[in-house]
Amino acid sequence: PAMPRLFTGVEIPTDVSFDLEIMKGGIIGARWIDRETFHITLRFIGDIEGNLAREIAYELDGVEARPFSLRLKGIDVMGGNKPHTLFAGIEESAELRRLQSIHERIAQVLGLPAEQRKFVPHVSLARLKEPDLHGLHRFVASHNLYRSRTFEVDRFVLFSSRPTRGGGPYAVEESYDLQAAQ
Predict the structure, then answer these.
(1) Count of CB atoms within 10 A of residue 25's CB?
(2) DSSP strands (E only) in 103-165
(3) CA of residue 13 relative to chain centroid, distance
(4) Where are the beta strands (DSSP E) in 15-144?
(5) How far is it between the farthest Cα atoms of the chain?
(6) pLDDT digits (tens, 9 = 90+) for 97-155
(7) Are 20 and 53 spatial neighbours (Cβ–Cβ below 8 Å)?
(8) Are residues 101 and 127 in contact, defined by beta-carbon separation less than 8 angstroms?
(9) What is the dihedral of CA 113, 117, 120, 124, to 10 degrees?
(10) What is the pTM for the complete model shown?
(11) Rounded CA gap, 36 and 16, in Å?
(12) Which residue has the higher pLDDT, 52 or 150?
């Protein structure tokens, strides 16, 4: 069987996912992402073999970070004048950045190449293929003031996606509780 494609991330609470789902529609050329797969990616790991996957799972188990709260904020697009992803942004969070940098360090220690792109935490809502730009800009403008409720992040997870299933749904391979300082 093909190795699962692995990545770490933070889950989105069900009610917040419903709020995002209600927004869907009105953009020609958008392929909307299933509510069940909304998440914030921390570190993409990729297709790796079993031993390395086990090492990563083991290292993630040692991550020390306490629970924190997050809030989604605003809707935007990636890709500049060739937009490819519609997403919900995240209110600035030092804790989320710290967690991501710990995951980045683990990935590099285990021999994965450094992530070249700057970390832009987000929840992807739709993949865009030559979208109607007028509809896209109208959508972004009308949801610009979106704010989710503040929610607690008390765990992160190791997700897998089987490439055969079109990239989703994702399976939670492992979950890791964030612990308050003892």
Answers:
(1) 11
(2) 122-128, 151-153, 155-161
(3) 13
(4) 30-32, 39-47, 68-70, 72-78, 85-90, 122-128
(5) 53
(6) 999 999 999 999 999 999 999 999 999 999 999 999 999 999 999 999 999 999 999 99
(7) no
(8) no
(9) -80
(10) 0.91
(11) 11
(12) 150
